[in-house]
Amino acid sequence: MSSNDNTSTLKSYVDSATGAVQSALGSLTGNTSDQTAGQAKQDKADVEHDASHATLKGPGFTASAAGVSKDDPDRAAGSWNQTVGSAKETVGGLIGSEGLKQAGREQNLDGQQQEAKGQVSDYTKGAGDRITGTVGAAVSGLTGNTAAQKEYQNQHDTGKTSQRGAEHDILKQADAKNELK
């Protein structure tokens, strides 16, 4: 994916601001073509922003406009431990086994912590890959090393996808907790 095709949150903000200024200047000067071009730039920026944040979560992976990344193994294992723990807690409650119920609670809590650890790992690794990829691509571009530039851009894109996947799950869990209140 070339940097021209890459959807970027920062780029969408810059394009939106540029479009707003161009549209406002067109409005002040009465130049309808500037107004139209400015509005078109703002509309394109909105689409780029939405694409930059679009995330598809699957079991063990995240896909976005930037690419696909594999989730940290702690995320799936933690989710599994939560499910098994909840089942044990439910069965323990149904049959009156306080020990099974307590073991289920503990496994559920351990699973929540394990999943959170995986989310933090994916988020921080993704952020690091984005920074390294951006800097590496810029330096490679300046030196004319197009192969390295492409590799660094792929690192950036994978990092962005990993970060978006963690954000998606964290927000989903926060929404679920807010619904329970």
From TrEMBL:
Listed Pfam families: CsbD
Basic and acidic residues compositional bias, start-end: 41-52, 153-181
InterPro entries linked: CsbD (IPR008462), YjbJ_sf (IPR036629)
Residues of the CsbD-like domain: 74-125
Chain segments carrying region Disordered: 25-128, 146-181
Bias type Polar residues, positions: 25-39
Top-rank lineage group of the source organism: Eukaryota
PANTHER family: CHROMOSOME 1, WHOLE GENOME SHOTGUN SEQUENCE (PTHR40460), CSBD-LIKE DOMAIN-CONTAINING PROTEIN (PTHR40460:SF1)
Family: Belongs to the UPF0337 (CsbD) family.
Record's protein name: CsbD-like domain-containing protein
Organism phylogeny: Eukaryota, Fungi, Dikarya, Ascomycota, Pezizomycotina
